[in-house]
Pyrimidine 5-nucleotidase
Amino acid sequence: MEYETQFPQPKYDCLLFDVDDTLYPLSSGLSAQCTRNIIEYMVNELDIDESKVKEMCAQLYRDYGTTLAGLRAFGYELDYDDYHSFIHGRLPYEYLKPDPVLRSLLHSLPIRKVIFSNANEAHVAEVLHRLGLEDCFDDVICFESLNPKNQITNPSTPKSSVMKYDNDSESGVVLPESPIVCKPFDNAYQQAFKIAKINPHKTLFFDDSIRNIQMSKLTGLSTVLVGSSQRKIGVDHALESIHNMREALPELWESVSKSLDVGLSQKIEVAVETPVEA
């Protein structure tokens, strides 16, 4: 006798996570120190006027997603490894402590989980290590994934096109392109989907940046804004903390439970119905 095994199809087959200020709270102080390191780099290594650097740093971040992408767009030549070493290599990672609650939540979901960060590989690895989450993710997409060394200077590589709008006019001013691929630009998402073989229409994306969330929504991703309970345009779910996953997204656990229950009942049915020949 033949039996058709039909499992309920879960809504999501992948959970995509940002790292900084998403897997740990903004209140940790790590991001604030990162900004201070960027400003120090711009002053000491690039000789940018100290009186202008804070405003410039913030503007480049707003226009290009990362200050590094903005610096490259405006022609600053720098070594990416040296930059990341200066910015992230001196961070007080001791601010981060193991998070057994988050670890338990992630392990309780047998759904593929992928990291998607603009930061470099070493920083992502150190953060996951400090939080005790090294074995919770199936893949990592980071700066090096999006910007392979053999492609960064390749003129055929898709670039981030940036349009800046003037408050007094509806016309846009086109800013210089950056060779750096990073969130929140569409090419970063498309590249991430290709690298990790992600179907955006079956993926739930967690990020603390409303700009990243809103752009990701346009690519087909379902979205979760972390660090705020306020829903905005492009936000499907809003969590004050990543620890609120189970309360805010019970359907993730319900779909897993249903799949397990159906699988178990079908195994029992097959075992009972299968004739035994002595």
Notes: Confidence is low (pLDDT under 50) at residues 152-161, 163-171, 260-272. The two ends are 18 Å apart (CA to CA). Residues 164 and 173 are 5 Å apart (CA to CA).
